[in-house]
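Page 42, continued from yesterday. The earlier attempt failed because a stray header line got pasted into the input along with the sequence. Redoing it now with the clean sequence only.
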Amino acid sequence: MYLIVGLGNPGRQYEGTRHNMGFDTIDYLIEKHGIPQSGVKFNAIYGKGIIGGEKVILMKPLSFMNLSGGPVQEMAGYFKIDPENEMIVVYDDIDLEPGQLRIRKQGSAGGHNGIKDIIRRLGTQKFLRVKVGVGAKPKGWDLADYVLGRFPGSDRKLIDEAIQRAGDAVEKIIADGADAAMNEYNRKG
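This time it went through. Structure tokens are written below.
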């Protein structure tokens, strides 16, 4: 069984923002695979279903980005998920161009507070990540204002395609493994 975590912030005011790439990818997977919502548990919305012949739990923490680790830790513990082998976290990355994807098997938080909290709560940096590029903040901008902002209309199509590709990358990890997904998706453009 896989726990697939999409990071974001709850509430209408955060819908469509750069910081909600994880939530948007989970929504794409829910719709594509017809996964019903199972309810709210451990301060997260979740649903259980099947992707690529494997049982999955799709999860969106409701704790706000910087406190994502608590719900992830509790959900993983409750469902006996091994984070190092059975968890995929999808989130935004300002170090990647808008729409670019990067899959990693492990690593530091890279300045991302949601990932930092997950690492702190789980006690490991070894878990799969699908990063969705949102582009670097413009010079002089506050980082929080940038990631909580929305994409300009010119980037929206590119971002919608990236969300779909991030969902497809999750499917590829489940079906064929992380290495195959990295070979396919860790390319520019």
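Notes: The chain has a mean pLDDT of 93.
Reminder to self: strip header lines before submitting.
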